[in-house]
Amino acid sequence: MMNNDSFLREFMTEVWNKQGFDKVEKYIHNEYNIYLDTADPWEGKTLSHLEYKKRLKYSFN
């Protein structure tokens, strides 16, 4: 079983750094809540996997 540090490191590498949108389902719950960034247009929203992928693509542009 993977510990939290390894899991997060793998997520950051595979999904964020490599932009592996096809791997989102492995790391992100199907109801992802956005918190802590009032400047984020998605603040307070609950995103599906599809919406999370759109948010990632927005972040990379």
Report on the structure:
The chain has 61 residues and is mostly helical. It has one domain (4-60): Nuclear Transport Factor 2, Chain: A, CATH 3.10.450.50. The protein has helices at residues 4-17, 24-27, 49-60, and strands spanning 32-33, 46-47. The longest helix has 14 residues, at 4-17. The chain is globular. The mean pLDDT is 92.
Which CATH first-tier class would you pick? Alpha Beta
Strand content: 5-15%
Helix content: 40-55%
Widest sheet: strand ordering = 1-2
Estimate the global geometry from the Cα principal axes.
globular
Quaternary structure: single chain
Task: Label the CATH architecture.
Answer: Roll
Helix/strand class: mainly alpha
The span between the termini is: 35 Å
Rg over CA atoms, rounded to whole Å, is 12 Å
Question: Could you tell me the number of beta strands?
Answer: 2
Largest sheet: 2 strands, antiparallel
- Structural domain count: 1
Classify the fold: give the CATH topology: Nuclear Transport Factor 2, Chain: A
